[in-house]
Inverse folding.
């Protein structure tokens, strides 16, 4: 028997403009294709950085970030390619960062786990589990003090809720009614450790309701559900209604880092991975759009061609970019 | 406000202070905070008790009434998250000052200080920095014991990406705090509670003190004493006694440990040929060890005698005043160290 269930797209989607429906697809496609390209070329060992691919989790980044403006803030974690791309981060600069180049978004000092693009509200990311959560909360504090109506989103995984700092952050956000959304991407594993070995309860979204944060859960592979849930939370935050917590249950189709599936390591089964692969958020959403005639197969093809070119261009840029100069190794320690 | 334009062009000569306006140590710090709050709307102050009647040793009393409860606010006891909050606010354009009664509680925030604040600028290729001030005051005495008296400069000195400031006079406490708020990087200021006993000359208005510039608190030719924080007071007292014994000690106050005024220390050692480092912290792996090593590496040829460290015993601070007296080092230990080094001089006949 399967442990997963099919993705159920809402039949009523009149409230979402067709433009947004196709942008959600485009955003996911972009994430997926960049990740697949990394997956494809990683063995060459030219990207000397530990990549944490988010294949299978594309819907969360896209569904949340499509509700944000360029001025809003997003803070991500070690598995941050998708959030960076969905928020509008410069893909060329991201790929160049993976290739350790001077043209990388962090000038080759950060690598895969430290992506930044201040021009679109990506103020940096932390690879310490839970580490970015209070920082995102602080950006929301700044927005609250400046009354600039920006919203801050903090993306983190299921293991982050095991860190005390997340409770501390949510407590403070509630106290100050900060415009922040805590988005937990529950992909069921922390490195190789399953959720059941780490937490006594598996409904993470219920964890913080005791201190009064509105909490939601969404199928993290259903981009429409994520989009709608995030929209409600973000709209309320922007109107001064304070923080929200959203748990999106999902699955990473790749290993914790690198390009395997984890099956070869032995902490999960081929069947489990295959079942979740059937729940691919991109493919299922594409079928939905086609069935509902929201996109034609010609349009799907054109979008795919467009993104393929974009990805090719980004990798070309990265691979032909200069490396940092070794004499500059101490640069940027201070501003 | 553009701090680079507002700050006084050059440092005011602190020695001009004998006859100038005098302020208590706490009032000097308070004045720096008020000037910052007045002149830059991005500045805000957070910390446990900053708006309570005691007001962080009276430094912040009633500032929330004057500048608003949004800009001067009490915090939950979540030192790690609140440090992250301050970092995030700084990234989003604010200039937070996070005040702590005691640095011992900074240990709860080491993840955000060391993993995040200190690394953000480098890790993101200089794209964005963290203009953050973390202020804490070291306690001493009255049975404060192991968890309310720690002097953690050694730990912070080890971490690249932080500035570490340890003022000793009201003049420096104000000027260095202004420099720290104006700086675009994370700065940790470690005060010492016993330095609050002083009053001293403090100029009005905004003035800055550059990081990495120490001062010679007493000129001398026989031996250099680099004294950190409250040990400056002990070293100056020791120097007076030593003078009676015919020993002329030079006392250097580095004021900032990170960056460290290496040139000032090396110049002094070149002149005296002898070095004592007196630190408020533990001996092993401490600030004193770093300064001694720096001189051994860069000024070995100047040395006529081995370097000596005067530092706390490598144990937690005991509560009993009898044991406390044994734990803390001071004037007597500095005198003993100097005398021991200079006895060598007479002993082996070298001058």
């Amino acid at each position: 028997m399967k442990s997963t269930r099919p993705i159920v797209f809402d039949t009523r989607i009149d409230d979402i403009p067709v433009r947004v429906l196709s942008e959600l697809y485009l955003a996911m496609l972009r994430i997926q294709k960049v990740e697949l390209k990394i997956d494809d070329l990683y063995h060459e060992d030219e990207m000397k950085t530990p990549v944490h691919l988010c294949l299978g989790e594309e819907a969360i980044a896209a569904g949340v970030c499509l509700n944000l403006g360029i001025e809003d803030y997003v803070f991500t974690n070690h598995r941050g390619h998708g959030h960076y791309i969905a928020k509008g981060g410069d893909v060329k600069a991201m790929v160049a960062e993976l290739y350790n180049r001077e043209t990388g978004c962090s000038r080759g000092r950060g690598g895969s786990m430290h992506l930044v693009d201040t021009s679109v509200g990506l103020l940096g990311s932390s690879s310490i589990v839970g580490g970015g959560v209070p920082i995102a909360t602080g950006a929301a504090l700044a927005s609250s003090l400046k009354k600039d109506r920006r919203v801050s989103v903090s993306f983190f995984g299921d293991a982050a809720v095991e860190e005390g700092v997340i409770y501390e952050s949510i407590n403070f956000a509630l106290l100050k009614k900060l415009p922040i959304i805590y988005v937990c991407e529950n992909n069921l594993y922390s490195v190789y450790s399953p959720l059941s070995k780490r937490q006594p309860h598996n409904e993470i979204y219920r964890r913080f309701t005791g201190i009064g944060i509105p909490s939601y859960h969404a199928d993290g592979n259903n981009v429409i559900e994520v989009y709608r849930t995030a929209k409600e939370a973000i709209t309320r935050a922007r109107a001064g209604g304070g923080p929200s917590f959203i748990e999106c249950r999902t699955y990473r189709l790749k290993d914790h880092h690198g390009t395997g599936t984890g099956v070869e390591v032995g902490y999960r089964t081929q069947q489990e991975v295959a079942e979740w692969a059937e729940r691919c958020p991109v493919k299922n959403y594409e079928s939905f759009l086609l069935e509902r005639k929201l996109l034609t197969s010609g349009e799907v093809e054109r979008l795919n061609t467009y993104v393929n070119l974009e990805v090719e261009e980004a990798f070309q840029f990265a691979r032909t970019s200069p490396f940092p100069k070794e004499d500059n190794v101490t640069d940027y320690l201070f501003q | 406000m553009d701090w680079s334009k507002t700050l006084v062009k050059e440092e005011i000569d602190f020695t001009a202070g004998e006859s100038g306006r005098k302020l208590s140590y706490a009032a000097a710090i308070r004045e720096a905070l008020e000037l910052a709050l007045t002149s830059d709307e991005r500045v805000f102050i957070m910390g446990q008790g900053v708006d309570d009647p005691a007001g962080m040793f009276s430094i912040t009393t009633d500032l929330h009434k004057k500048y608003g409860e949004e800009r001067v606010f009490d915090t939950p006891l979540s030192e790690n998250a609140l440090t992250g909050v301050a970092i995030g606010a700084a990234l989003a354009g604010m200039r937070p000052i996070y005040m702590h009664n005691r640095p011992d509680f900074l240990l709860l925030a080491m993840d955000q200080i060391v993993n995040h604040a200190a690394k953000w600028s480098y890790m993101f290729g200089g794209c964005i920095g963290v203009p953050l001030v973390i202020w804490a005051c070291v306690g001493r005495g009255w049975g404060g014991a192991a968890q309310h008296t720690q002097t953690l400069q050694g730990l912070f000195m080890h971490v690249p990406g932080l500035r570490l400031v340890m003022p000793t006079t009201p003049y420096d406490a104000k000027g260095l705090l202004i420099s720290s708020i104006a700086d675009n990087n994370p700065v940790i200021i470690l005060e010492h509670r016993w330095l609050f006993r002083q009053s001293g000359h403090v100029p009005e208005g905004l003035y800055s003190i550059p990081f990495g510039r120490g001062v010679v608190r007493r000129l001398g030719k026989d031996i250099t004493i680099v004294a950190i924080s409250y040990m400056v007071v002990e070293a100056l007292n020791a120097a007076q006694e030593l003078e009676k014994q015919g020993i002329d000690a030079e006392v250097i106050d580095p004021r900032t440990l990170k960056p460290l005024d290496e040139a000032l220390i090396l110049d002094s050692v070149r002149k005296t040929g002898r070095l004592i480092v007196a630190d408020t912290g533990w001996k092993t792996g401490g600030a004193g060890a770093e300064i001694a090593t720096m001189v051994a590496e860069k000024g070995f040829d100047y040395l006529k005698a081995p370097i000596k460290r005067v530092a706390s015993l490598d144990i937690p601070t005991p509560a009993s005043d009898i044991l406390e007296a044994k734990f803390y080092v001071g004037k007597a230990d500095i005198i003993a160290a100097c005398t021991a080094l200079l006895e060598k001089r007479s002993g082996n006949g070298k001058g």
User: Anything to note?
Assistant: The interface with chain B takes residues 73, 75, 104-110, 114, 116, 118, 123-124, 126, 128, 131, 133-143, 145-146, 150, 152, 164-165, 168-169, 171-172, 175, 331-335 of chain A (CB under 8 Å). The longest helix of chain A spans residues 18-41. Strands of chain A lie at 73-76, 122-125, 152-157, 180-186, 189-190, 193-194, 215-219, 244-249.
